[in-house]
Amino acid sequence: MISETIVAVEKKQFYAAQLLDNERFKDFTICVEKKEIKVHKCVLSAASLVFDAMLQPHCKEFQENMVEITDFDVQTVKAGVELMYGKEPDDNLSSLLKLCKFADKYDLTNGVSL
Predict the structure, then answer these.
(1) Which of its termini does the chain have fewer beta carbons within 10 Å around, N or C?
(2) Tens digits of residue pLDDT in 5-63
(3) Nearest Cα to 99, choosing from 76, 67, 69?
(4) 94: containing domain
(5) At 96, which CATH number?
(6) 41: in domain
């Protein structure tokens, strides 16, 4: 009789937040207030139903690999991006209110919580 031993291999947990600080493989640009925020399509798509919709092949944003956001300031958009990458938001009430509006507009419901 053959006995088998199953060895559990600990896998390194995936941290999307680490990707945010790494420029490698970033394939999409968010333009806001004449500044560019480089991001990963897969992270945006997983975190936001709105970004997921605009990152479909028939959409302008997908074809141009960029979106321009004009109704939020750069700090709010950066905070929204950080939230999509799993980082904790600031405790500043004013910033949190703006971030909630951003999260609502971009439907940050897929695994993102404030």
Answers:
(1) N
(2) 555 444 444 567 788 888 889 999 999 999 999 999 999 999 999 999 999 999 999 99
(3) 76
(4) 16-105
(5) 3.30.710.10
(6) yes
